[in-house]
Design the sequence.
């Protein structure tokens, strides 16, 4: 298999705090893994590995060479980053597989450098199976990242594996190793590892490669906020997770679909909405021309409506 995972990334970020709780603020170097997706040196890793504005990123490859890397773009919401290294020769890389085709029970192979233990350039390989798909998981309520449709595997993943590839038995990328679940303790791997699916990675990096940022190409035509106990009691709303619609743009897609201020959106597409950040992550799965089914509560009655998504109109100068 033509894969060349990156052994170490060294930006300034909060990688250790992300996995093991709060620490005193300080400048330090973090480490993680990544993988090449093109012969001209494009590398995918986690955003929490490289940070938002690192002063320096150094990449070590399995041939023992070290390269400075350029940050192409990051998307904090989905925890995906794209970087590039300049090389004289074409680099070997791995193809993406269709993560929608992943089957529970099939083999899964995780590559990376757990704990940054090894300096010989060779990645550590762990093998397991796909335990589940379409897992929605938010490990830290104070963290802006939202993880949806995650792939769960029992292949061992530890600190330092983050950002590395999760492969199928053909050696193609089905996901990116991102975090483990430890049951709220400081324990290490307990058989619950989660990877961002490859289809989501491809959508995000295509935008990062084009514009350096990820943004919707349509405007849903409404404003909303997360439901809170204060809002529920103040406006006598149903006690549910969801979004309170606070404004609707006249003539916009939401207005045309009949959505009104005061409606409570509880479902977007097939997913129940947990928070505002979760909603923005779900909206990433739609594009201009799609019809987005929304389930909402109005005056304690449940309704469904379809929003036809149109091209965002640029403001006139």
Sequence:
């Amino acid at each position: 298999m033509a894969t060349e995972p990156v052994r170490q990334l060294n930006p300034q970020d909060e990688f250790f705090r992300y996995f093991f709780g709060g620490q005193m603020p300080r400048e330090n170097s973090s480490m993680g893994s990544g993988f090449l997706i093109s012969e001209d040196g494009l590398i995918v890793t986690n955003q929490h590995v490289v940070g938002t504005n690192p002063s320096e990123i150094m990449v070590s490859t399995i041939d023992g060479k070290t390269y400075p890397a350029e940050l192409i773009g990051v998307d904090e919401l989905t925890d995906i980053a794209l970087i590039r290294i300049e090389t004289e020769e074409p680099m070997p890389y791995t193809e993406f597989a269709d993560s929608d085709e992943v089957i529970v029970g099939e083999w899964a192979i995780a590559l990376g450098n757990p704990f940054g233990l090894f300096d010989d350039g060779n990645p550590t390989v762990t093998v397991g199976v796909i335990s589940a798909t379409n897992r929605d998981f938010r490990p830290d309520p104070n963290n802006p990242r939202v993880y949806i449709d995650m792939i769960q595997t029992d292949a061992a993943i530890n600190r330092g594996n983050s950002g590395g590839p999760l492969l199928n038995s053909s050696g193609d990328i089905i996901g990116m190793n991102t975090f483990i679940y430890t049951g709220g303790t400081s324990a290490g791997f307990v058989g619950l590892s989660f990877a961002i699916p490859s289809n989501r990675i491809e959508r995000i990096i295509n935008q990062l490669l084009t514009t350096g940022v990820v943004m919707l190409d349509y405007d849903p035509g409404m404003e909303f906020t997360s439901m809170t106990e204060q809002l529920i009691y103040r406006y006598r709303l149903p006690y549910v997770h969801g979004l309170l619609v606070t404004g609707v743009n006249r003539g916009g897609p939401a207005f045309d679909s009949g959505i009104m201020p005061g409606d409570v959106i509880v479902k977007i597409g097939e997913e129940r909405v947990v928070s505002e950040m979760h909603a923005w992550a779900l909206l990433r799965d739609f594009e201009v021309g799609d019809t987005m089914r929304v389930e909402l509560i109005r005056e304690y009655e449940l309704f469904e409506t379809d929003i036809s998504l149109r091209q965002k109109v640029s403001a006139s100068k």
Notes: The longest helix spans residues 198-211. The chain has three domains: 5-85, 99-211, 222-308. The mean pLDDT is 84.
